[in-house]
Amino acid sequence: MKTRSPPPPPSAHRPVLVVGASGQLGTRIVQQLSAARQPTRALARASSRQQHLRLPRVDIVHADLAEPASLDAAVQGAGTVIASASALAPLAGSRFATVDDAGLAALIAACVKHRVERFVLVSVPATPFDAKVPLFAHKRRTEQRLAGSGLPHAVLRFAPFMDTWFALAGLALATRGDAAPLTARPWPFLQRFMGVVGGLAESRGLLIVPGGGDRRHAFIAVDDVARCCIAATRHPAALNATLSVGGPEAPSWHEVADQMAAVLKRPVQVVGTPAAVFALQRLLMRPFSEAAANFMALNGFAAQPRPPESPDAAASLGVPLTRVADFLRAQAARPA
Question: Which tens digits make up the pLDDT trace of 154-177?
Fold first, then answer.
């Protein structure tokens, strides 16, 4: 039987389409592509904030995953696609069913139609709790759909983002200088949550974490996530691969708190929340808000002990990784 040769690497002259460009990760991807002088299309809804996307060699295209008919024109002519969009912190009535399921299915179909050279999907770790976390369940279905599409693709399953989880735990400086932090999205539930925990590390020396201080995570910086996504559009190691990507170390929350204390120049105490609390909140919120229930389920997942992701996948893509201490020092050096 004649073996089929792999497709050539994607061409550099066709634009990269970034889906979810106005979000925290999508913004970093667009910024890095622009700095690298790569022609880029930033897909965003017409109603989203997008002034920060007006950069050299970046064309902003208006489309919406919740409106599949709007995707065809955005995809046409694109060389590669990076899909970072999600209804994790929903705006304007977005839901997982319309964005993470039907929306991404329509996007994959448009990419098949227009012969996109590679599709990079930003995904989440595979866990025993996938069925209980709507975001995770939808990511698994999209991965399966992508694998069956025939598109050259890469699936990147990332460990928790430092920038986001440190801010959710109470460290305000984690998002200092960020043009589009997740924690600033105008989702009422998220804003009420941040109204309680936001800045507690700075103001009271408290870090509110899921599980306890001994839970370890291979935290990865959003800038490094963006670099991995861009590398995966061309790197042969990513072709038709599913890569679990973690940061360069797997510190416990106690160790993270110690490093925060060194930067803040004040003690930082870890306050843990048991997984059972998040499980109960998930059940109570599920009838009223899928997104809020998902948020609690995410915290419940983070509260469980599990093996951290390896830095090997990022190394295979040629991406150097940022350590927690270096990330914190760099954030503290930014203007407040």
Answer: 999 999 999 999 999 999 999 999
**Domain boundaries, position 306:** 16-333
Whether residue 3 is contained in a domain is answered as no
What's the structural domain count of the chain? Answer: 1
> Predicted confidence band at 13 (pLDDT cuts at 50, 70, 90)?
confident
Q: Is 127 left (phi over 0), alpha (psi -120 to 50) or beta?
A: beta
Measure the CA–CA gap between 143 and 147, rounded to whole angstroms: 6
Please report whether residue 42 resides in a domain.
Answer: yes
Structure tokens at 318: 């040629």
Within-domain flag for 123: yes
Per-residue pLDDT tens over the stretch 16-35:
999 999 999 999 999 999 99
Say how far apart CA 132 and CA 297 lie, in whole Å: 7
Look at residue 7 and tell me whether its pLDDT is greater than 90. Answer: no
Query: What per-residue string of b and e applies to 277-300 under the rule 16 or more CB within 10 Å gives b?
Result: ebbebbeebeeeebbbbbbbbbbb
3-class DSSP state of 128: coil
Average pLDDT over residues 71-97: 92
Quote the CA–CA distance of 95 and 101 in Å, as a whole number: 9
Strand pairing category for 80-83 and 153-158: unpaired
6 is a domain residue: no
* Mean pLDDT calculated for residue range 316-331: 98
Would residue 7 be called left, alpha or beta, if left means φ above 0 and alpha means ψ between -120 and 50 degrees? beta
Question: Quick one: CA dihedral 304, 322, 176, 51, positive or negative?
Answer: negative
Instruction: Give the Cα separation of 277 and 282 in Å (integer).
Output: 9
Distances from the Cα of 147 to the Cα of 140, 151, 199, 326, angstroms = 11, 8, 42, 37
Evaluate if pTM is beyond 0.90.
yes
DSSP 179: S
Q: Residue 270 has which token pair?
A: 């870890």
